[in-house]
Amino acid sequence: MTKTVATTPSTAAASIEKPVPHLGRLDAIGYLICLGGIVRRELLRFFNQKERFFSALVRPLVWLFIFAAGFRNTLGVSIEPPYQTYVLYEVYVVPGLAVMIQLFNGMQSSLSMVYDREVGSMKVLLTSPYPRWLLLLAKLIAGVTVSVVQAYAFLAIAWFWDLDIPAIGYVAALPAFIASGLMLGAIGLLLSSMVKQLENFASVMNFVIFPMFFASSALYPLWRIRESSETLYMICMANPFSHAVQLVRFALYGQFEPIACAVVVGTTIAFFTLAVIAYDPGRGIMARRGGPAGDTA
Amino acid sequence: MSDAPGASAALDVAGVSHRFGARAALSDVSIRVERGRFMALLGPNGAGKTTLFSVITRLYASQDGRVSIFGHGLDREPSRALARLGVVFQARTLDTDLTVEQNLLYHASLHGIGRKAAKARIAVLLARVGLSDRRDDKVRTLSGGQSRRIEIARSLVHEPKLLLLDEPTVGLDLESRADIVAIVRALVREEGLSVLWATHIFEEIDGADDAVVLHKGRIVARGTANSIAQGDESLEAAFRRLVAEPPRQAA
């Protein structure tokens, strides 16, 4: 133990206690700066991980090039809104594949939240002075930004497939993609609070991603499913992913689907609220998760 | 820094208890870090140091007791309290794929600091920790000691007046350890920063420092480091004696 000169507290000067200053600002502008910073970090990380960007694009393209090409002759998709004529299977499947990108992205964000929690960078985020729900919302918006970029990158490549999507559809689809991205991100956010360790993520693939994707209107129109099973049809109708796909599908053809929109918005609010509760310092998982390893008494 | 007599402490932890299920991690812990003081928090592994840090940083709310930072209660005014608190966590928490400056700018934004002000502040801090020339390097190219210095710089970006460090020198070589201790001590001396430094490395503590010993979730000794040791006893010997006994709450 070294015995050197002590550090002494400074002498008293003021007699009235003034708030101790700090550099940051806690108002709305400060929050926008915070939001911008979180989105920027997410984008930087995304573009740093080139493999992630490419694998996110390759997955739906494989579906489109191979799977859809294989099925185009076996599956005729008959007239159903928003389509006004018979469409090729490739045309039918594109909106679902675009939203699939967002589904994977939502789960990827959730995965990175779990990772952040394990390595500790989540702590850095949560010691920000802004209310926790605002931080989670910023995380969500950051994830959606990435997922919308990916969805449009896919549409840009798919454009070569003669999809007959009107120009206005690409614009109209933006709010739909944002809404579906928010919904899938909110689901991912709640999942991230429930998944204890990174390794458990395989079960998220099995029990969340695959059922959501396959039991939906992404790959086949639901009336076809109804023909084979009424129960399965009901499940697909209850699946919020189906509604996200329908919202985007209609928007791509310049139409608005109010029921799908209501389901997507409602699901987003419900899951985001649950995620905020789960991350609340007082009652949430952070407190009950058993705490840091070793701290026992 | 000017403190009035009776001014609120930099950190006031009052009667904090926390349980994980049936397991008590903290039992009635009270710690007061005065403004401009360096306080050492000593405790063996598993004593509850990390839980205490988690409660002070509001990762989770304490089930009992109260934590205030410069008079702002974490329960009532969490934003004001956290805005005045800087933390260096035990685990490395920098984004290794991002550059030093990107990491620090991210942190600045988490505190609502605009880019221009943040860049100016970052330049000052990097000079302070002696790493100005590494600003545009990716964090993964830094050594352990350098990353730690960057983490200290990061914890100061928003100009907090209270700094918490959870075993910041663990796993570092002697020279890096000395650098980090010197940087933090200079901040206390020159800028009046208040520091709570968790450690079990006794060389890092001066005799006149305030110190508390945490053992099995309870404070078992408090005072200056010199006063905790009895007679000719070294602080290390005193510590071993304290943690060998069943925990008895210190007054």
Structure description:
The complex is a heterodimer of chains A (297) and B (251). Chain A is an all-alpha fold and 297 residues long. Chain A has one domain. Chain A is 69% helix and 0% strand. Chain A contains 12 helices and no strands. Chain A has helices at residues 28-48, 50-71, 89-119, 121-126, 132-158, 167-194, 201-214, 222-228, 230-238, 240-252, 258-279, 285-288. Chain A starts with 27 loop residues before the first helix and ends in a 9-residue tail after the last helix. The model of chain A is unreliable at 1-15 and 292-297 (pLDDT under 50). By secondary structure, chain B is of the alpha/beta class. Chain B has 2 domains: 6-84 and 161-251, Rossmann fold, CATH 3.40.50; 95-159, no CATH class. Chain B has helices spanning 49-56, 78-83, 100-110, 115-128, 144-155, 174-191, 225-228, 235-244; strands spanning 11-20, 23-33, 38-42, 64-69, 72-73, 85-88, 162-166, 194-199, 210-215, 218-224. In chain B, strands 6-7-8-3-9-10 form a 6-stranded mixed beta sheet, sandwiched between helices. In chain B, strand 7 (162-166), helix 6 and strand 8 (194-199) form a beta-alpha-beta unit. The longest helix of chain B is centred in the last third of the chain and has 18 residues, at 174-191. Chain B starts with 10 loop residues before the first strand and ends in a 7-residue tail after the last helix.
Using brief descriptors, characterize the structure shown.
heterodimer, A: 297 residues, mainly alpha, elongated, disordered N terminus, disordered C terminus, B: 251 residues, alpha/beta, Rossmann fold, 2 domains, six-stranded mixed beta sheet, four-stranded antiparallel beta sheet, 10 strands, 25% strand
